[in-house]
Task: structure prediction
Amino acid sequence: MKAWRVHMNGEPREVMRLEEIPDPEPGAGEVLVRVRAAAVNFPDALLCRGEYQIKPPFPFTPGVELCGEVLAVGEGTAEGDAPEPGSRVIAQPALPMGGFAERTLVTAASIREAPEALDDAEAAALHIGYQTGWFGLHRRARIQSGETLLVHAAAGGVGSAAVQLGKAAGARVIGVVGGKAKADAARELGCDVVVDRREDDIVAAVKEATGGRGADVIYDPVGGDAYAKSVKCVAFEGRIVVVGFASGAVPTPGLNHALIKNYSILGLHWGLYNTKDPAAVQSCHEELTALAAQGAVKPYISERLTLDGGAEAVQRVFDGITTGRVVIQP
Ligand SMILES: NC(=O)c1ccc[n+]([C@@H]2O[C@H](COP(=O)([O-])OP(=O)(O)OC[C@H]3O[C@@H](n4cnc5c(N)ncnc54)[C@H](OP(=O)(O)O)[C@@H]3O)[C@@H](O)[C@H]2O)c1
Result:
């Protein structure tokens, strides 16, 4: 079968190689799936560059979420964790065997029923970005209907999910994006106000849109300058959710400033909920499935590529020039 593999760290387009390898064998707690669709995430590029918190042994295959068809369950897998062969599921691959391959291994515990309302590419993208958005907005920031939510990189993968989830929660959503095409996408996604960070003054625009109050909840997958702007336009008792550092710059918050302005800085590492509170991850999946059935959320898939396009796609996501999710369909 064909699989993208990384033998050394570096830029994705330089170190990802499309190779012919034998089918992987599922061990206990693992399931072999045919990959129907695998969404590209920013961490795929970080994995290639050796900058992610997980460092799989070489050679590894990137691809951290997928929609697939169950082919075989590893011997010794707990009965409750064993899905029916042939079922259409979403799951997280068992690195070093990731999702950018014709077939791969996923952890049995991560398997969930793929929502019927979504096609394969959309289902693949409903997991990490939407779970992160849901836990960030509801569990960490306790967003309330009627509040104002500011989303940085609002047309990106994680950002577009937060925009839709914010609207579904009854918030007024301000989306910050880089460039005109992304501004159009953010409007399509449902942002009430769109700010182009390349053209507009973010702080002034947020203050104007909120009558000077600022945003109640700020969802930040970017860090760097986005964080610096956030603290200048966060409302009294506002909450800044630290989601990621796509800009490459990890901010150093001034705690005196948080004290003086009465705002909270909330860290979010969604993956931890899989071990700390797996029941909450499952109930979030059920809620996301229901929201998808109602049409309240629908992953924005900007590109559907064959396996050949894998390395370029990971590179472009890292370079910040994609919108929504790019999905590989082997
Ligand atoms: N905390 C968690 O549990 C968790 C879970 C999943 C993902 N994440 C993190 O969330 C972030 C977003 O992931 P994603 O897959 O959804 O990626 P993405 O948002 O689709 O891509 C990153 C976006 O960041 C913006 N950006 C601003 N400055 C940038 C720069 N210097 N270089 C590149 N991009 C820049 C760009 O949008 P604009 O040009 O529109 O600003 C770009 O499209 C990543 O840092 C990822 O690691 C965290």
User: Anything to note?
Assistant: The radius of gyration is 20 Å. The pocket of NAP is lined by residues 41-43, 128-129, 132, 153, 155-159, 177-178, 182, 197, 221-222, 243-248, 268-271, 317, 320, 322 (CB under 6 Å). The mean pLDDT is 97. The chain has twelve helices and 15 strands.
